[in-house]
Design a protein that fits this description.
This protein is an alpha/beta fold. It is built from twelve helices and five strands. α6 links the parallel β3 and β4.
Length: 279
């Protein structure tokens, strides 16, 4: 006869599963590095123009931008969000037209002119200032980056009728330094690198999730949190990954507290993780 199946929530007494990405932006953990980026964006809004945000994959750029989106005054600003930018210039413009509610025209030049005219008149017609957020911009080709420059040029040479935010990794930051992208780089009024958690952030982050789940705060020992932080290099996505793996393994092994020894023998031996931390 099979044993009764265990569940994470009932085994640990969780009211909700911790360390998942499913959370309202306003209820997210307020890390110091993420708060610095949001504060910088609010200040940038006073100057308008073009902003560039970058950091390693998993550092929390998208989720921090979600929080910024929730914080801006929607009586004064409209923010349009576009991602998955690995497309042709024409495909990019068509996606942008759909986002803005414009007819999808056939020719690339007509698409560009329609978008530029629409954004140029947006604030006057809607009494709100338009901001376009291009998230995960690493997939943008040089041709698309040049198109963004032309859009920025259209806005800046008269006045800033609209602004845009470009987000990506260090790979995109390096590409912006290349000669063919120099003109776009010069139009960036605010650039900010989002860094990973400090060890204090990591401790508070783990406790934040455990508190939300109404779990005992000693579920992860301090040494275990330190080990997770070292493995994750401060990246919240990896902290979530290792923490969830630890919880699942602990439930399988019927363990109620996760310490350094448990991590070494039941989590860090997984091929996904850095085995050098076991030594």
């Amino acid at each position: 006869m099979n044993e009764q199946r265990i569940h994470l929530k009932s085994y640990f007494g969780f009211t909700k599963i911790p360390f998942t990405k499913y959370m309202w932006a306003t209820k997210m953990f307020d890390a110091s590095a993420q708060r610095e980026m949001i504060d910088g964006l609010h200040l940038w809004l006073e100057t308008r123009g073009t902003a560039f945000l970058y950091g390693p994959a998993g550092v929390g750029k998208s989720i921090t931008l979600r929080r910024f989106r929730e914080e801006i005054d929607d009586r004064r600003f409209d923010l349009f969000y576009l991602f998955n930018l690995r497309v042709t210039p024409t495909g990019f413009l068509r996606s942008l037209c759909r986002l803005l509610g414009l007819p999808v025209l056939y020719h690339q030049a007509d698409l560009f002119d329609a978008i530029s005219a629409f954004l140029g008149q947006y604030e006057e017609r809607n009494r709100k200032y338009p901001i376009i957020l291009f998230d995960d911009g690493d997939g943008l080709s040089d041709r698309l980056l040049e198109m963004l420059r032309l859009m920025a040029n259209f806005s800046m040479d008269s006045e800033d009728r609209f602004s845009f935010i470009l987000s990506g990794t260090q790979k995109l930051a390096l590409r912006l330094k290349e000669p063919q992208n120099e003109a776009l780089k010069q139009r960036i009024g605010f650039s900010h690198q989002l860094r990973g958690f400090t060890i204090d952030d990591a401790r508070n982050y783990v406790r934040f999730h455990l508190k939300r789940a109404e779990a005992p705060k000693e579920l992860f020992t301090d040494n275990a949190i330190q080990m997770i932080f070292n493995l994750a290099k401060g990246l919240p996505r990896v902290i979530n990954q290792v923490a969830l793996q630890s919880l699942i393994q602990a439930a399988i092994k019927r363990v109620e507290n996760i310490d350094e020894n448990f991590l070494k023998h039941h989590v860090l031996n997984n091929s996904l993780f850095d085995n050098t931390l076991q030594e």
